User: What shape does this take?
Amino acid sequence: MVHDGRRPHVLLVALYYPPSRASGVFRPLAMANHFAAAGWDVTVVTVTEDFFDRVVGSRDDSLLATIDPRVHVVRVPLPMSHLDPDLRHRGRLATTLPFVHRALTIAGQKYVFPEQYGSWILPVAGEIGRVHRHHPVDVVVATGNPWSDFAAAYAAHVRHRIPYVVDYRDSWTLDLFEETDAFPPGHLARRWESRLIGSAARVTFVNEALRHWHAQRYPAAADRMRVLPNGYDADLLGEPGFRAPEPGAPLRFGFIGTVTDRHPHEAMWEGWKLARRDPAMAGATAHVYGHLGFFAGQADRIRALLPLEEGVGVTYEGPVSKATIGKVYDDLDAILLMAADSRYVTSGKVFECMASGKPITGVFSPTTAIAEPLAGYPLAWSAAELTPQGVADALVATARGAREQTAGQHVEALVHARTYRRDALLEPFVAEVAEVAGA
Assistant: This one.
């Protein structure tokens, strides 16, 4: 792998890393921990924690304890005068000449790098160089978004000749939900993406649909593109035991995860109201666990999408810590798996839901990418169409299936789920990165 007798050293660039509570944080967290467990020296370059207080407005400090102690974390400040609404935190130019500062910010995003986090690129590239001088880096893995992570890896590659891998948790120039180009031909974002992918040693995506789209857009790099599904962490739920619903008691359904306005709320909750008319759903309750949106200012708007005051058994239970999530799943009779409508979106929650071994109601379009890993799970009933009636039919089928499930089906469900354990999925990825480091 390396040729001087030392342990290989991988440096991971990930702005979203604990204590961020963004859904994308679990992928780089698992990557870093897995490299450390595999015998690598691991450095993670991420943002200073004040970013999550001043810009994002939320954090989850409990996630800090999940970082493997062998992982060295370096926090680099992101110049954020253009992002922080608090004037007390802004630089001199932003406070004394705000119009000049805004004009320079707009010009930077239009002509230099087309993203609001572009001011982080040079500080991170400089930090990679500093780490490399003291402890030679064999390979950089950058995970995005933001896409500034990729650009920082590229800058370090140009200056220090360190090979790099880019990992797409999302898409940049593809609009996931409209399924069209996010930018017109010739746009700066498309030029940058072509450059970054063209120089990358490997490019990974969360599903085959995304890999295929990018392979068509950048055919010269197609042979370096791979699929790395999200998966779930093996220690999250342990080995859940079988528990059938209590006979005669109303069923407890639950949604666990960040609630966003991209979820199909109208079909979900109108379908829920229809389904409760069926005897199999008599008195059923739906418990929503998780944050309302990714940013603090989104909560009230997203809460309004839930029928909390309509007397239909829907309640909001708030966020769940990693330490208690196993009990939350155990207390449910069935899981509501809502997902945004896109053939390119695979919600990471599907893997966690399957790992519970519980009956699942799939509330998403049949063409959505989330349907692929759920295929073969024996306790899933998905809406045939994303309409209130389609959702209602799936809920009633789930209710009946939950009552009739067997311990054998529970075991089959867990066997299927285990194929998506992160440690198993990361093994071939680590092998690919080792090839890159060895080159």
